[in-house]
Amino acid sequence: MGAQVEKPSRAEAIFMGIVFLLMAAGLVTSIIAFTMAMSRAAASPGPVYTVAIIGAAGLEDLDRPTLSPVFNLTVRINNTGNKLEECLGSFSAAAVSYGDAFLARGSVPPFCAGKEHESVRDATAWGQDVVVPRFLRERLAGELGRGEGEVDVQVTTPAGLYCYDTVLVCKVKIGGGPCPCWRDHVYPRPAPAAGS
């Protein structure tokens, strides 16, 4: 004959019911806490990148066909609303252009803004005997004369751990305050095969 299964006593049944309720309450509490944490992380704004040109030289004589400009830049990461650290990695470079004409290039030191912090780094971009078409030099001279001179600044961080370059694209007023940047990810093209 088979063994008989004993029914649990009333006290054991109550104890098992309490244990089950506590486990269910713990599971529900964990799910609620996880959902709240995820919604807070999703609701927190991402980092805000800005670039300012705090000084420029070499644009005084726009009658010459070549320019040797120097731009003193300030790159800022405002991470005050973000719960994660945000960084501009090694080998980052800033390129300054005007109307698709290259003006200057320089390195940007790597730096990070910790969670809910802000961080700033200075950089210099320069060009040597850069050829700028006459119509662009005339247009830039007019804008500078009116105090409206703007250039395009791109800060590129090459692919490191990730498979894409990070590019900050900014329209920056010369001598103006910090201008917001748009962040993009660009997948670099593979190098051409030798002999092609």
Question: Which key features would you list for this structure?
Answer:
alpha+beta; 8-stranded antiparallel sheet; 23% helix; two-stranded antiparallel sheet; 12 strands; Late embryogenesis abundant protein LEA-2 subgroup domain-containing protein; Immunoglobulin-like
Question: What does this entry look like structurally?
Answer:
With 196 residues, this protein is of the alpha+beta class. It has a single domain, classed as Sandwich (Immunoglobulin-like), CATH 2.60.40. Helix content is 23%, strand content 40%. The chain has two helices and twelve strands. The N and C termini lie far apart (85 Å). The mean pLDDT is 87.
Secondary structure: helix percent: 10-25%
- Average pLDDT metric: 87
User: Based on the structure given, which CATH architecture is correct?
Assistant: Sandwich
Largest sheet: 8 strands, antiparallel
- Mass-distribution shape: elongated
Question: Structural class of the helices, strands and pairings?
Answer: alpha+beta
When the domains are counted, the total is 1
Q: Any idea of the CATH class? A: Mainly Beta
Roughly how many Å is the radius of gyration?
29 Å
Low-confidence stretches: none
DSSP strand content: 35-45%
Order of helices and strands: HEEEEEEEEEHEEE
Layout of helices and strands, plus pairs?
Blueprint: H1 10-43, E1 48-57, E2 66-67, E3 70-78, E4 86-88, E5 92-98, E6 101-108, E7 111-113, E8 118-126, E9 130-131, H2 134-145, E10 150-157, E11 165-173, E12 179-186
Antiparallel strand pairs: 1-3, 1-12, 2-9, 3-8, 4-7, 5-6, 5-10, 10-11, 11-12
